[in-house]
Amino acid sequence: MGEASATEPERRDGEATGDGVVVTRALTKRYRGGQLAVDGLQLTVPEGSVFGFLGPNGSGKTTTIRMLMGLIEPTSGTAHVLGRPMPRSARAVLPRVGALIEGPALYGFLSGRDNLLRYDAADPTADPRTRRARVAAALDRVGLTAAAGKKAKAYSLGMKQRLGLASALLQPRRLLVLDEPTNGLDPQGMREIRTLVRELASDGTTVFLSSHLLDEIEQVCTHAAVMARGRLIAQGPVSELAAGARGRLVVTTPDPADAARVLEEQGIADVVVAGERVTGEAPARDLAEVNAALVAAGVRVRGFGVERASLEDAFVALTGEGFDVAG
Ligand SMILES: Nc1ncnc2c1ncn2[C@@H]1O[C@H](COP(=O)(O)OP(=O)(O)OP(=O)(O)O)[C@@H](O)[C@H]1O
């Protein structure tokens, strides 16, 4: 089942491809129309991580995932998945990778269970003797046991997405690749998928998931890569990425207009007033001086501090632009 062939010995992760489940070097895709969708991508996804692939719509995430899965050829550069080159080793690699890309393909007239049975039967590496048991376990895993006998066309979007995840879980996987797994779900459905992703990761499966939702990445991912216009802007542990951005200075005061004026005089950038909260970019200089200036100007300071930077702050700091491109 998906073992390395004699002609292409499997490299241990850490050799030649660097220490990663997914490693790309100068990976580039230019579509026929001339669109440079992915530009010189250097990605390293550590084993056991929940890796968020983050970027606004059109930043090249799906194109990258399609190259990783061997669905399209890169224009130049290399992609290794589980230590082997793609798309050349797709036949050996893909059985050990569970993927959910661009929504699950389902037969509406079949029940959820029958969809999985059929899907599994189409997989030449799947053992028919264990099929029913594996399908039942996957349904249980995603919380669809009670609805397993219902026709898939009667499923909600969230249930369809869960069924798609179940199809990725029919066999033990070292890597799960999920393209926008919460797209189109309501907040409850999103929470459920996030919980599921965390559970899968706690079993040791590396999860690579793309998202255009910053808070989603912050909530579930240990690591992230940030894309913008086909290029990698940053990657690393989520905590370090967020720490790379300065937080925001927050002043709580009944005198917000005066506070804003003083902060601006003190050279604080991006001062924003919202009710009694005045915020600005945290300065590099001593905050005690800023506080003293507020007090000296007669501003009644009720609260003063720096809020931890979010990944969104990091993104804005890195790209100089907001994240909401197309929702
Ligand atoms: N088959 C294609 N032919 C030509 N251009 C394409 C093709 N697929 C995508 N593109 C372009 O490549 C760029 C990257 O698209 P891609 O779908 O990879 O981005 P994305 O980050 O996954 O965005 P989304 O979240 O909207 O899917 C976009 O400018 C897109 O218009």
Automatic annotation (TrEMBL):
Positions of the ABC transporter domain: 22-254
Entry keyword annotation includes ATP-binding: yes
Protein name: ABC transporter ATP-binding protein
Pfam families: ABC_tran
Keywords: ATP-binding, Nucleotide-binding, Transport
Protein origin, superkingdom: Bacteria
UniProt keyword annotation of Transport present: yes
Stated family: Belongs to the ABC transporter superfamily.
Transmembrane segments: none
GO molecular function: ATP binding
